[in-house]
Write a structure and sequence with these properties.
By secondary structure, the chain is of the alpha/beta class. 38% of the residues lie in helices and 12% in strands. Strands 1-3-2-4-6-5 form a six-stranded mixed β-sheet, with helices on both faces.
Length: 229
């Protein structure tokens, strides 16, 4: 990781801009879930992770209260992450199919995982003002990822965040492209790809299957001019 990217991460994890989110993430970290009562929760904003030379960014919604808010690493330690990392492994972006904690040996190649909001929100629903206050963190992170060509937007919230990030860079898409699984748009020099979010609500009901997410990630490799797996 570059010094500049590490500096963004160090500043991010000290952020307390959103009182409601600060109170919630710290309450969850103190009360814990029974299954994790012996663990020390992260309880702070969660930075992105992956390959600083990444050509692909995966953009999610926010940390899960007992997932990344516990482990300190995006999508690590919850069912959404189990589904996502298995797919990243199958499609050549991850060296292993699971991610359970920060020091479990996970390495990403050509991929970076981040989120639109960095603190776990109550009911997994950040407020518009919280979303807007968090946008500069992701923008700052992306400024130090010089090779990004493709953004896979995990859910409509991620799609909207990608469009807002492009707008913050001075590029407004007109007409505004609509989110959908497999949707594609070129905005601000990025190829946006839509993917249903790997939440349990989607994966347990078959709204998002392994084949569906693998197809999106294979398309991302193609758009990013990476070898197919």
């Amino acid at each position: 990781m570059s010094g500049a990217l590490a500096a963004v991460e160090a500043e991010l994890i000290g952020c307390r801009r959103c009182p409601r989110l600060v109170a919630w993430r710290e309450q969850v970290a103190e009360e814990k879930r029974a299954a994790f009562r012996d663990e020390t929760y992260w309880g702070r904003p969660v930075p992105g992770l992956g390959d600083p030379g990444a050509r692909l960014v995966l953009l999610g919604l926010a940390p899960a209260a007992h997932g990344a808010n516990r482990t300190g690493r995006m999508f690590t330690g919850d069912r959404s992450g189990d589904f996502l990392f298995a797919a990243l492994h199958r499609t050549g972006f991850a060296n292993q199919p699971t991610s359970t904690h920060r020091d479990d040996g996970l390495e990403l190649t050509d991929a970076w995982i981040t989120a639109a909001v960095r603190c776990a929100p109550p009911a997994n629903k950040p407020l518009p003002a919280e979303r807007d206050r968090c946008l500069p963190w992701t923008l700052a992170e992306l400024e130090h990822l010089p090779n990004v060509a493709v953004v896979v937007c995990l859910g409509a919230f991620g799609w909207d965040a990608a469009l807002r990030l492009a707008a913050a860079k001075g590029v407004k898409a007109r007409p505004r492209p609509k989110f959908g699984h497999g949707a594609e748009a070129i905005v601000g020099g990025w190829s946006l790809l839509g993917c249903f979010h790997p939440s349990q609500q989607n994966t347990f009901t078959g709204v998002l299957t392994e084949e569906m997410i693998d197809t999106v990630l294979a398309r991302a490799r193609q758009l990013a001019d990476l070898p197919q797996i």
